[in-house]
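So, does this match?
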Amino acid sequence: MKQKDRPAHELVREEDQGRIVFFMGGVRSGTTVFRRMLASHPRVRDRGEIFNSNNPQGFFKYWREQVAVDPDLAFPEQQGKLFMSYVASLVPKDKDGIALLDIKYEHLNLIHDAWQLPFTNPPMLRLIKRSQLKVVHLRRQHFYSVLSNLVAVQTGRYHKPADDSSKLPEKRAVAVERSLVLTSMKKRKRAADIVDSSFEDGQRLSLDYEGVFDDQGDFQPAICERLASFLSVDNQFERQPALKKVIDEPLSAVISNYDEIRDLETIAL
């Protein structure tokens, strides 16, 4: 069978399946600092957030180039094939390299299926599962990740290098809307549950952000060991984070109406 006639999920060669790793999590869930730790391994090649339109290695740059050659690739029934072709193109040229692809919950629906019913699981997850590609899933308590994102959006304070080389906007307290916080928490929980339920344990490694760091603020040795075992590499990860926490004080100091939402921290979703 010619390659162009092969199903989308077979576009990644079998010998390359262990050389592609998807890293999934929510915005403001510690994904950037964790991805940098993963990319500190000498065999890992960080491809960044693949659905970020500013990423020169991103999917949309690839999509634009391919559609310019064959306009029919713009049709939704071609998206799965195009996505898996893109994934295969990111396999490192060096034989031992591993491509690390970052996908946020918010981007899971960006690959379409022409015949997909509304409100069903994202086709992207099915494609990844069928291709037997590995997934590292970083989960974070939804209350904190939602508030971290809302504060960052309002203040412009996103990432702080560990060496303090970058100056951030001044800290200031912000107000958040209770209904927005609760709705966002529910959506994040559903996204996290969908990722976990879409893959068997052997294909997916799920980690909780709250247990990633030790008392000194470095990555836990046990976490690095689990990652090394899952990726089938030596444990050569850099344990010292490249970024500091942007919010390192009590939430009541950065949320002006914290009393209105404090109960959401322990609410059952």
